[in-house]
Specification:
Layout lengths: L12 H11 L9 H17 L6 H18 L17 H28 L19 E2 L2 H13 L16 H14 L2 E3 L10 H16 L3 E5 L6 E5 L3 H20 L5
Antiparallel strand pairs: 1-3, 2-4, 3-4
Helix pairs in contact: 1-4, 2-3, 6-7, 6-8
Length: 262
């Protein structure tokens, strides 16, 4: 079965590279080009397996990493890894990553200021004081979800079944199932949503359903800090959920009737 899904929530290729650098604990000033290229292509292969439509910029970055890797493998002619112009071939990539990281950091600071402003109350407003210290959590990125998804797959063993089974797996049906679970609980762990999935196809459909719910802004995914346990929360009441699901189903029908309009 094929699942075609186009998502707007993906960060760009620089986000993926920064994620890999943090995940692998690499030095951004001394990027191991061969390893970062391998990890990047592994992620692209995973996205391809999920039939996610990749933006062209991901392919451009893959080509750039391949070119850079090839350049690093060429004899340096005594220039100590320098390129033809005497500069390190990694310098431009490092510069772009550091510049992008500064923009992301500034955006994060602005979000924090917005949050702090929301904690100020004008005279006459009601203040609710909760006991206990507030747990510090951060939003998980799409690539954090991909890392968790890869871990779920690595922990499961799928038996080869030569019996032919006709199974219809629906992303929209799984979207409803995830929402039902979240309506019953305040939050759930990312891994728990796959507990009852018996096949790889079911795990994939559940993951695609989570991505769709993120795109529709019906859930948020957060963790104590990067690479820690991810928890999933609902962000809307049942009425809002039903309205969003209605629009989603209608758009799916339109896509099937008019595939060229996608």
């Amino acid at each position: 079965m094929t699942y075609q899904l186009k998502l707007d929530i993906f960060e760009g290729p620089l986000d993926l590279l920064l994620h890999l650098i943090k995940e692998q604990k690499m030095d951004i000033h001394d990027i191991p080009v061969s390893e970062i290229s391998r990890q990047y292509l592994n992620y692209m292969e995973l996205m391809s397996d999920l039939n996610l439509e990749l933006a062209g910029e991901y392919l451009v970055m893959a080509a750039e990493l391949t070119r850079l890797k090839s350049k690093m493998l060429l004899p340096s002619h005594g220039e100590d890894e320098d390129g033809e112009d005497g500069t390190n071939p990694r310098a431009e990539l490092t510069r772009r990553l550091m510049e992008y990281q500064r923009y992301k950091s500034a955006a994060g600071d602005l979000r924090q200021l917005e949050y702090e402003r929301q904690q100020l109350f004008s005279r006459g407003s009601e203040i609710q004081i909760e006991e206990g210290e507030e747990e510090i959590i951060v939003d998980a990125t799409v690539f954090d979800l991909f890392s968790a998804f890869k871990q779920v797959l690595s922990q499961r063993t799928f038996k080869e079944d030569f019996e032919i089974k006709i199974t219809t797996l629906s992303v929209s049906e799984r979207v409803n199932r995830v929402l039902d679970t979240l309506n019953e609980h305040e939050s759930v762990t990312f891994e728990s949503l796959f507990a009852e999935n018996e096949s790889k196809q079911e795990i994939i459909v559940t993951f695609l359903a989570l991505l769709e719910l993120m795109r529709m802004a019906l859930i948020r995914v957060q963790q104590g800090s990067q690479f820690e346990t991810i928890r999933v929360y609902r962000t809307a009441d049942r009425e809002t959920q039903q309205e969003a699901l209605k629009d989603y189903i209608e758009s799916e029908i339109d896509s099937e009737l008019n595939p060229e309009a996608i």
